[in-house]
């Protein structure tokens, strides 16, 4: 059911500056994409079969803005690749996990994504991600 670690999301204040830092380390930003539904701008770095997502808020009420206000920059979420996101959401709902999204939404690269609340997942914001490879 779980395919791989799809990506680690990192909240940053300024995407262009963060890209310089990460490319200075030797990583390569493949693409930068705005995801209006999530109020973020995303820089995608491929690392083997996984990705790093650098995330900048595109509005004051973006979840990324609130996160940074409260906790500063840093690791924001862990995204796991799944075969069937609807089935997984159903299963977790039945098991009593607190779903932020009952139905998947569209994320970066057109993936189907849904979040499970950190309070249900030992303090980790978990993202389920179904991607047509
Ligand atoms: C597009 C791209 C993609 O992959 O395609 C993305 O990832 S989009 C990535 C951006 N989109 C998202 O993050 C959408 C899902 N996130 C959300 O719905 C929200 O951010 C949220 C429900 C996790 C938290 O929102 P909130 O208004 O409740 O914020 P609060 O600050 O009050 O958080 C409530 C409690 O959760 C904790 N908390 C909040 N955010 C996180 C986090 N990222 N990781 C771990 N814990 C967290 C807070 O410390 C607090 O705990 P305590 O009470 O103990 O202090
Ligand atoms: Co993500």
From TrEMBL:
EC number: 5.1.99.1
GO BP, one annotated term: L-methylmalonyl-CoA metabolic process
Pfam families: Glyoxalase_4
Keywords, alphabetical: Coiled coil, Isomerase, Metal-binding
Gene Ontology terms, MF aspect: metal ion binding; methylmalonyl-CoA epimerase activity
InterPro entries from the UniProt entry: Glyas_Bleomycin-R_OHBP_Dase (IPR029068), MeMalonyl-CoA_epimerase (IPR017515), MMCE/EMCE_epimerase (IPR051785), VOC_core (IPR037523)
Class of the enzyme per the UniProt entry, highest EC level: isomerase
VOC domain span: 4-131
Gene3D superfamilies: 2,3-Dihydroxybiphenyl 1,2-Dioxygenase, domain 1
Coiled-coil intervals: 75-102
Superkingdom of the source species: Archaea
Family assignment from sequence similarity: Belongs to the methylmalonyl-CoA epimerase family.
Protein name: Methylmalonyl-CoA epimerase
UniProt source species: Pyrococcus kukulkanii
Lineage of the organism: Archaea, Methanobacteriati, Methanobacteriota, Thermococci, Thermococcales
